[in-house]
Amino acid sequence: MNPSTASSPSLLAADAGATVRRLSRCVGDGELDSPAEMYRVLGALRLLAADLTHLLPALQGRLEDGLLSGRVVRRGGGDPVEATWDSVGEAARALAHARTVALLMTKELENSQVALRDLATP
Predict the structure, then answer these.
(1) Is residue 51, in this structure, part of any structural domain at all?
(2) Would you say the pTM of this structure is higher than 0.85?
(3) What domain range includes position 53?
(4) Among 97, 89, 54, which Cα is nearest to 72's?
(5) What is the mean pLDDT of residues 89-116?
(6) Domains in the chain: how many in total?
(7) What is the 3-state secondary structure (H, E, C) of the chain?
(8) Do 47 and 109 contact (CB within 8 A), yes or no?
(9) What is the rounded average pLDDT of the residues 50-79?
(10) Which sign does the torsion angle of CA 12, 18, 22, 27 carry?
(11) Is 64 within the bounds of a domain?
């Protein structure tokens, strides 16, 4: 596998998803049993959610750039130009909503972490 393929955005996203699923299994299997470790996990997840709030607008920007440059074109019946603009608009709205949800998640993870602070200190 060439180096550019090994770190393609889709593979990086798949790796991130696999890591979160492994974490979920660890938590479900009871491997997370101390408040201090839970505090650290919540902190790492908060950072992950914060990173998503920066990634999602970048994805939206790339999609819109592709639309304006003509690299993004919808295939199929009907008017392809109108259909492409509609699809990109729908995706942009969904990404903006996902960013709002990620911002809320970041804040709630921070709240959870703060609530555990006293339990996590020796």
Answers:
(1) yes
(2) no
(3) 34-120
(4) 89
(5) 95
(6) 1
(7) CCHHHHCCHHHHHHHHHHHHHHHHHHHHCCCCCCHHHHHHHHHHHHHHHHHHHHHHHHHHHHHHHHHHHCCCCCCCCCCHHHHHHHHHHHHHHHHHHHHHHHHHHHHHHHHHHHHHHHHHCC
(8) no
(9) 89
(10) positive
(11) yes
